[in-house]
Amino acid sequence: MELSFVDVFWIVFVVVIVAWYIHDKYVQREHQLLVNYPIIGRLRYLFEEVSEPFRQYFGDEKFYESKDKLDWVYKAARDKPNYASFSPSQPLAKPKFMIRHANIVLNDDEVENDFKVVFGERRRKPYISKSIIARSAMSDGSISPEGTRAFVQGSYLGGFPINSGEGGVTSNFFVTHENYDESYMKIVDSTHLNKSIKRFFKFFFNGSLAADVYRKLVFKNDPEAETYILDLKTKRFYRPNWDAPLEVFPKEVPSDMPDIVFQISSGLYGARDKTGKFDEDRYQKVMSFCQMTEIKIAQGAKQTGGKLSGAKVTPAIAYYRNVEAYKDVFSPNRFPYANTIEELFDFVGKLQELSGKPVGIKIVISDMENIEPYAKEIKRRVDAGIDAYPDYITLDAGSGGSATAPLEMMERVGLDVRDSVYLVDKILKDYGIRDKVRIVASGKILTPDDIIIVMSLGADFLQIARGFMMSAGCIRARYCSGTTGRQCPVGLATQDKSKRKKYFVFKHANYVANYHKNLLKNVKGLLAIMGLKNIKQLDQKKLLFVDKNSRVHDNLDEVFRRKLDLGKDKGEQNEFR
């Protein structure tokens, strides 16, 4: 009797199921659940596996206040109308800040387009930012080379600053700089045949694939091939030649580059020599292309120093940072020139003198004791006529941030950015030095209302990471760290070539620029209904606070006095939390 295909299929199926049942129940001893629930118990592991990447698609958003805010970011990046019908899908929970509107509102065209912020008025080369918003620190390394290029091009198109992150100013920050002088660049040219092959692939496929093929033809197996940028005009490759003498580097930042804030961390990446010590010469060369410096003392939940897993330390990243490829790069907890606040400020003064440009520090605070020592030292130096102190202080929220951080520190170390801004603004005013230092805020700032609230509380300037990440294609799968065996599925925050090579650089660069444009556009809309002509007119009196019992408070000093335990009325604090 011949068996049909269907019969064979069912016989094989039953044999496999029986064997699988026997294996789970009687053979394997790794999973207790499978002993009691053979086969079907594996569904638990399947659901657990898919729960994280699919988390953002189902249910209410618990981490970013509201999914409506996330939707706003994605629509703004694509330059789509940002209106909602009927009501928010997820109203903001109380307690919350409310924005006061005016009886006589303004039309949008009556609000000024002046969003300039001046840093370091006392320096030889002050920096005037054309925007109140910068892309916050995200290192080339944590972000893929393609992702960094998208951010750099988006920053240049949008006319807003970009923070280098602690990975330093890598070759990818020069992607828009095509009018370079060859004296400070290393150039690699190729043959006419290779260029013809590139044109062939571009004609039949796409520019990205053509560039990838062309790079392989030119560099073959050179591990540092990715440290070079392709000049689309000349079809040559170039990268900064940091070994060139300082005299040949530009005296002014090239006009075809975005405004870069160079961040220095405890690892001193991008400003260190081969032994890991601070290199004055290299720092000055880097600052030829940057507008100001930010010293990272802490960031978000990372009080331990930056962490880059070995999977992300490619030969290119190793070249940029002067470290060994494919080994974990964990920065020291303490900045090497910050054993005391006095030593830190002396180092700030050294950088100000070397660059002639503004220098600030990035910190996270938990209470008054974290900021008062800084204020006291600034006050002492101001009174003594000593100019070596930070031109600005960046305040990061005590959350996880857009980068890798120890889970046990997330949401456990550091205040919310709004509390931090209020407290630092108050302390600096109390010491009479508020006009000497700009306050920069960073942490879960996504939408125009966030900007209005934080700036009303005292911020002069903002750095945004999460919003720009989403505008650049991030779907919040939380596979960024490189430590889980999984990679960023869109190719934005991974060094996995199979993922990142498919990332749409130019498309996402426009999305990044759109997000910034729509932030400012809608900030103007909010200023209009508040009756304000300029962003500088914001102050605490423009806000209300609704506590968890729906009581409305118009005295924010009183709210924060109780909320932050700045006074004696401890019994009245709970309603504000």
TrEMBL record:
Glutamate synthase domain boundaries: 110-532
Transmembrane segments: 6-23
Domain of life: Bacteria
MF GO annotations: glutamate synthase activity
Keyword Transmembrane helix: yes
GO annotation, biological process: glutamate biosynthetic process
Transmembrane is among the record's keywords: yes
Entry keyword set: Membrane, Transmembrane, Transmembrane helix
Coiled coil regions in record: none
Family per similarity comment: Belongs to the glutamate synthase family.
Protein's name in the database: FMN-binding glutamate synthase family protein
Source species: Arcobacter aquimarinus
